[in-house]
Design a protein that fits this description.
Chain B: Its main location: membrane. The complex is a heterodimer of chains A (299) and B (184). Chain A is of the alpha+beta class. Chain A is 64% helix and 6% strand. Chain B is mainly alpha-helical and 184 residues long. Classes of the chains: A alpha+beta (299), B mainly alpha (184).
Chain lengths: 299, 184
């Protein structure tokens, strides 16, 4: 399956399965809430949904402006960096997408990210460190990866994942508190199951949701690599860019886990998160996949 | 009573289905047109760059008359071509001629290091990439249109939408097709 079209469909299918598991998880936690907590449990669900929807979708609609603030990126114009704009323009033509806003983050660590709620409001940003350490082909590969996030609407996908994970976390959290304070036991409810049985799903569900959210993020990264190759038909450019990133040990200064999934390479220390919680697939694995694409003369 | 409801629902379903398929074909056809005009825009950009480039190289490499003539002729041919095969052929010829011109530049260190030439080189590099990406995007849109024209159910509405298969944009030079990234 060493061609980018097959890789794209595999990753899309797997994202779908993961989102489906997320939905099953939301359903299960709601079931637990209603079974063990009766009417109060049922009341918690719409509350959790509402709070999460407001917080996540607020940041989804303002994603371009919000991320600009959080990463201290500055939007630039053609005159500020004609070469970069030329490269972005090339990828825009290859992708058939509208021209995004281009921004620069003043940071020596090489990295890049894309955001925006839809292709019309897209923004892609590069750190100064990335612009200094990459040649034209590598820069084109990175740009294609970021434009691939825009094309695949990954801001939307991650907002959906964050919403479901948030709902699960909030329901579990509220119910756990109710459990400690004994408020959950509805006296009118007969034939109640022993309430301590609820503790296990309440502890496990948020962990499972976080794992699923990370798995979705990793899928979208692999998908963006494959889509990037469909734009440039040049896996070598992105591969050698990833090798530059792998060799580099500096980490982004204005980093936070809130924006980690935006970057082309995880801005967090590799040791900080285990593989299962990682937002990005291991960079060596991504390089290997691109090498396989290079070996295939069709792609 | 029940039968009429079912029949009406069925008719409504069929009408909506037909509209969706019809619109899909029309949309794909428009995308192909847009793809082709993008190629023409980029070819025009490249043609506009050439006089400047030739003048710059001429200043340093006076005796390479033959190379200049080939570029100028290829450029003239590319600006007059209008049908798709003619545009594609002229495009291929000009790409080849330009490659010859840049090879000449390699032999003149003064030229290679002049800021004017470096700037033109970047302009030409990005334009070559844009041309080849525009070709690639066009061919992808043709691929989706031709698939829709040939596969059921959209193929059933080809007559209604008056849309047919379109030609791929083929450049004769195989090196051009395989290498979208021109290195200088």
């Amino acid at each position: 399956m060493a061609d980018f079209r097959a890789l794209e469909s595999v990753n899309k299918r797997k994202t779908f399965y993961l989102l489906f598991f997320m939905a099953v998880l939301v359903w299960s936690i709601s079931y637990v809430a209603i079974t063990f907590f009766g009417g109060t449990g049922a009341g918690v669900i719409p509350l959790a949904v509402l709070i999460t929807l407001i917080s996540v979708w607020g940041s989804y609609f303002a994603s371009d402006k919000l991320v600009l603030k959080m990463t201290r990126a500055k939007v630039i114009r053609y005159e500020d960096n004609p070469n970069l704009f030329n490269v972005v323009n090339e990828v825009v033509i290859a992708s058939g997408l509208p021209m995004p806003k281009v921004a620069i983050v003043n940071d020596p660590a090489p990295n890049a990210f894309a955001t925006g709620r839809n292709p019309e409001n897209a923004l892609i940003a590069f750190t100064t460190g990335l612009l200094e350490s990459m040649d034209r082909d590598e820069l084109q590969g990175v740009t294609a990866h970021e434009m691939a996030h825009v094309a695949n609407r990954d801001t939307l996908v991650s907002a959906v994942a964050a919403t479901t994970a948030g709902i699960i976390a909030l329901i579990s959290d509220i119910l756990m508190r109710m459990l400690w304070f004994g408020g959950g036991r509805s006296r009118s409810h007969q034939n109640q199951m022993p309430i301590f049985l609820a503790i296990i799903p309440l502890i496990l569900a948020p962990i499972a949701a976080t794992l699923l959210k990370s798995a979705i993020s990793r899928r979208r990264e692999s998908l963006a690599d494959a889509t990037a190759v469909s734009f440039t038909r040049n896996p070598a450019g992105l591969r050698s860019a990833l090798e530059v990133l792998a060799r580099d040990n500096t980490v982004v200064q204005a980093r936070s886990s809130a924006v980690a999934h935006f970057y082309i390479e995880s801005p967090l220390d590799a040791s900080a998160a285990s593989k299962l919680f990682a937002t990005h697939p291991p960079i060596q694995e991504r390089i290997e996949t691109l090498r396989k694409l290079e070996a295939n003369p069709l792609s | 009573m029940d039968i009429t409801v079912i029949a009406l629902a069925l008719i409504l379903f069929l009408v909506v289905f037909a509209i969706i398929q019809y619109n899909k074909l029309i949309r794909l056809n428009i995308q192909v047109d847009e793809g082709f005009s993008q190629i023409e825009v980029q070819l025009k950009r490249r043609a506009d760059l050439i006089p400047n480039l030739v003048e710059t190289v001429k200043g340093y490499a006076t005796q390479e008359r033959e190379v200049f003539e080939r570029v100028v002729q290829a450029r003239a041919a590319s600006t007059t071509a209008s049908t798709l095969p003619a545009v594609a052929a002229a495009d291929g010829a000009l790409t080849n001629a330009l490659r010859g011109l840049l090879a000449v530049a390699e032999a003149y260190p003064d030229l290679k290091s002049s800021t004017n030439f470096l700037q033109l080189q970047e302009e030409l590099a990005t334009t070559e990439n844009k041309v080849s990406f525009a070709r690639q995007f066009y061919n992808d849109t043709v691929r989706s249109l031709n698939t829709a024209v040939k596969t059921i159910p959209s193929s059933l509405f080809v007559g209604l939408a008056k849309v047919g298969e379109r030609e791929f944009y083929e450049v004769d030079d195989p090196a051009v097709r395989n290498a979208p990234n021109v290195k200088f």
